[in-house]
Write a structure and sequence with these properties.
The chain has 85 residues and is α+β, with helices and mostly antiparallel strands. Helices cover 47% and strands 12% of the residues. Strand 3 (14-16) and strand 4 form a beta hairpin. The relative contact order is 0.17.
Length: 85
């Protein structure tokens, strides 16, 4: 069992954020994907891999991300509760 670095919930499934090196649960990653800078983070990660910088730490968590996350968490929690096992 792992604790999500972003929301501190317990999870068995996690992945690294595209913004930074936090290990996040699936709900936090879905919230991250909704942010307007997500595509920029993905593109920069790919560019860094192409130049063989495999230690890129991401573009950084955007300013105001915590408020953005809280605003989207309720709607995603409802979705996960209804659609997961």
């Amino acid at each position: 069992m792992k604790i999500c670095d972003r929301c501190n919930s317990k999870t068995n499934i996690y992945k690294m954020s595209m913004f930074n090196t936090q290990m996040c649960c699936m709900m936090c990653l879905e919230i991250e994907k909704k942010h307007q800078l997500y595509d920029k983070a993905v593109k920069e990660e790919l560019n860094q891999c192409r130049i063989k910088n495999f230690n890129f730490k991401g573009i950084g968590l955007p300013a105001g991300f915590l408020a953005f996350s809280k605003a989207h968490k309720v709607e995603l929690k409802d979705f996960f509760d209804k659609n997961m096992f």
